[in-house]
Amino acid sequence: MSTLTAEFRRLLALPSASDHTALAATCPDDPAALVRAALAAGTEDEPALRQLVEAALEKTNPTIRAGGIQAAALLGWSSLAAPLLLAAAVEEDEDLKRQIRIALRKCTSTT
Known about the structure:
Blueprint: H1 3-12, H2 17-26, H3 31-40, H4 47-57, H5 62-75, H6 81-90, H7 94-108
Helix pairs in contact: 2-3, 3-4, 3-5, 4-5, 5-7, 6-7
């Protein structure tokens, strides 16, 4: 993060990416918290956030799985491709399967 961006965040008292990740970790059944963490994250793979996304993809609740899929698509990290492939193999909901395909394109894109 640039110095200017960090200063801007400080002046506005905006939560950091790690703050959002920590909040998502305390609310594993809140897909919106996970998506906010993904929106706040940078382009570098963050193990704590990746683990939260992977855990969401394995939940039985389709709303939480959808949040994990959306977070993966927003992040676009290549490390999420394998968990998305595993999720696609067992997903029964057609809408979520379509979302997984989109997320996979994002996570395997080289551009």
